């Protein structure tokens, strides 16, 4: 059995994404979550690059004790000294030294000959080894480097004290078969390579970072360098969640690989990184995208209802989600719609179901973004067609940052007028809903959900309010559209209550 080390570079290469600038506190929070996920190595930053990066690495090195902490350094003494100063309090520090080895980088970026690069690499590794025996060496742009030169430089840095050799596909140039073959040749032709860990670091410029990484593991790599959500320079890095879940999901193929990470921490980590970096996760992103466990196709939904594994190779709970999602839309079928009705607490006969299903399909054809609130409003309107028992006569709200939000409301109840004033709440809507509850005197009203959104543009946009109430174990949905959102919210709440009263009256008449 073989354990593949997970080396996370979210805080170093990931933060190099354009427009990303994490605070020290945010970096520590991400590092703590990475520790909970049980990654093996956290590359906390590039200390020489800025005072902030230095302090972040230093803080993480002091506080995260159960994970190796790495810091990046160019192949020069100043960088290495700075990296060690930041790392020295770590439980298990690693200095990560790199230098470019491809002809194009050596000629145009470094302006150095291969012999000069070799000498500098060896000298840097020897120098870093004085601080710690845990030294990683990276040959930047290895996938475009001369093979014989790679064999030579890797051999010499191993002699100098490197304990990890990293093979980066720095510009995402490699093809999986080609990259796998590169790792195989390095394993076969580099002296003492079996004495150290062989690592890979792939970029996603051609969309093949994960495939290249997996190909490398198949051909003998011991460590994979990854980033949460695949963030990083240009098109990003190999995504941490994709590699780990590949090994977990395809354990029939990767029989000899041991996965020690707690995968239930993945979605929390993904959300944290997305929020802190301001980089939203694309909906169809593998593993962590919002659509990754969502199903709209009727055929897929029918299969999922009968047996989850028909259309899901992973359990949503395995990455920390509560469950998968059956998304109702124009492609959905009867089974999924009926499942939604049952799960939402609606009880209908077959005739009513057919009417509802036809209305749902018509609405789905017309409206591009169909929410659960839209569907609830449609269902509620059909099931609970009502004459208004409660009629709003008046609503007024007093709110602001220096006053207690208060609602005054007047509702006609049947043939009577009832007025209730000065009911306060945590906000104007809370105050309105509390005032309504006192007027109508219906016990045990539970607010299941409240949603409001603009359905037109501009400052005078119409606002759609949808309120879902649970009363006596049944769900009632109210809806209203007005330019004043507090007014729309009031009407939507009362609309839901009117449906409850009508349903109760209907049952009484049928007794």
What does the model show?
This protein is α/β, with parallel strands linked by helices. It has 3 domains: about 1-275, TIM Barrel, CATH 3.20.20.70; about 295-370, no CATH class; about 390-510, 2-Layer Sandwich (Double Stranded RNA Binding Domain). About 40% of the residues lie in helices and about 20% in strands. The strands form 5 sheets. It has an 8-stranded parallel barrel, surrounded by 9 helices. A 3-stranded antiparallel β-sheet has the order 13-14-15. A 3-stranded antiparallel β-sheet has the order 16-17-18. The longest helix is centred in the last third of the chain and has 26 residues, at about 485-510. The N and C termini lie far apart (about 70 Å).
What is the topological layout?
Elements: E1 2-3, E2 5-8, H1 24-37, E3 41-45, H2 51-63, E4 68-74, H3 77-87, E5 93-100, H4 103-110, H5 114-129, E6 135-140, H6 147-160, E7 164-169, H7 176-189, E8 197-202, H8 209-218, E9 223-226, H9 240-249, E10 257-258, H10 266-277, E11 294-295, H11 298-306, E12 325-326, H12 334-344, H13 350-366, H14 372-383, E13 390-398, E14 406-413, E15 416-424, H15 428-440, E16 446-454, E17 463-471, E18 474-482, H16 485-510
Parallel strand pairs: 1-10, 2-3, 2-9, 3-4, 4-5, 5-6, 6-7, 7-8, 8-9, 11-12
Antiparallel strand pairs: 13-14, 14-15, 16-17, 17-18
**Cα-to-Cα separation, first versus last residue:** 69 Å
Q: Describe the biggest sheet?
A: 8 strands, parallel, barrel
Which class do the helix and strand fractions yield? Answer: alpha/beta
Approximate shape: elongated
User: Into which percent range does the helicity of residues fall?
Assistant: 40-55%
**β content, as a range?**
15-25%
Going across the major beta sheet, what is the strand order? 2-3-4-5-6-7-8-9
The CATH topology assignment of the largest domain is TIM Barrel
Which CATH-level-2 architecture of the largest domain?
A: Alpha-Beta Barrel
The CATH homology group name of the largest domain: Aldolase class I
Instruction: Enumerate the spans where pLDDT stays under 50 for 5 or more consecutive residues.
Output: none
């Amino acid at each position: 059995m073989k354990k593949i080390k997970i080396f996370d570079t979210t805080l170093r290469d990931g933060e190099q994404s354009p427009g990303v600038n994490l605070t020290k506190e945010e970096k520590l929070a991400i590092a703590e979550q990475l520790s909970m996920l049980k990654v093996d190595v956290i590359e906390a930053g590039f200390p020489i690059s800025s005072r902030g990066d230095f302090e972040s690495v230093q803080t993480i090195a002091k506080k995260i004790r159960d994970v190796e902490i790495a810091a990046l350094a160019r192949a020069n003494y100043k960088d290495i000294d700075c990296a060690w100063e930041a790392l020295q309090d770590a439980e298990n520090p690693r200095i990560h030294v790199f230098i470019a080895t491809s002809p194009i980088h050596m000629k145009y970026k470094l302006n150095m000959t291969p012999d000069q690069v070799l000498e500098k690499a060896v000298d840097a590794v020897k120098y870093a080894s004085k601080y710690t025996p845990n030294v990683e060496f990276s040959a930047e742009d290895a996938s475009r480097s001369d093979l014989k030169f790679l064999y030579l430089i890797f051999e010499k840095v191993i002699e100098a004290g490197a304990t990890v050799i990293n093979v980066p596909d720095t510009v995402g140039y490699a093809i999986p078969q080609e990259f796998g073959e590169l790792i195989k040749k390095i394993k076969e032709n580099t002296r003492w390579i079996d004495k150290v860990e062989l690592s890979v670091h792939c970029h996603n410029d051609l969309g093949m970072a994960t495939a290249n990484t997996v190909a490398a593991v198949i051909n003998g790599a011991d460590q994979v360098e990854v980033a949460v959500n695949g963030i990083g320079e240009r098109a990003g890095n190999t995504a941490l969640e994709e590699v780990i879940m590949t090994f977990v999901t395809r354990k029939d193929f990767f029989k000899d690989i041991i996965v020690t990470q707690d995968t239930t921490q993945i979605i929390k980590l993904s959300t944290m990184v997305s929020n802190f970096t301001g980089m939203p996760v694309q909906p169809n992103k593998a593993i962590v995208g919002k659509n990754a466990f969502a199903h709209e196709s009727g055929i897929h939904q029918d299969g999922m209802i009968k047996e989850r594994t028909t259309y899901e190779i992973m359990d949503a709970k395995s990455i920390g989600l509560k469950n998968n999602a059956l998304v109702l839309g124009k492609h959905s079928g009867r089974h999924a719609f009926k499942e939604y009705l049952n799960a939402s607490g609606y009880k209908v006969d077959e005739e009513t179901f057919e009417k509802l299903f036809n209305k749902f399909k018509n609405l789905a054809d017309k409206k591009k973004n169909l929410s659960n609130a839209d569907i609830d409003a449609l269902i509620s309107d059909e099931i609970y067609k009502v004459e208004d028992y409660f009629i709003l006569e008046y609503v007024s709200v007093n709110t602001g940052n220096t006053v207690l939000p208060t609602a005054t409301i007047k509702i006609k109840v049947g043939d009577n007028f009832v007025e209730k004033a000065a009911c306060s709440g945590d906000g104007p809507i809370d105050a309105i809903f509390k005032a309504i509850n006192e007027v109508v005197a219906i016990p045990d009203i539970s607010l299941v959900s409240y949603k409001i959104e603009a359905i037109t543009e501009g400052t005078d946009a119409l606002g759609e309010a949808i309120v879902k109430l649970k009363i006596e174990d049944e769900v009632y949905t109210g809806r209203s559209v007005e330019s004043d959102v507090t007014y729309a919210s009031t009407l939507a709440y009362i609309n839901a209550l009117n449906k409850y009263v009508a349903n109760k009256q209907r049952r009484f008449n049928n007794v």
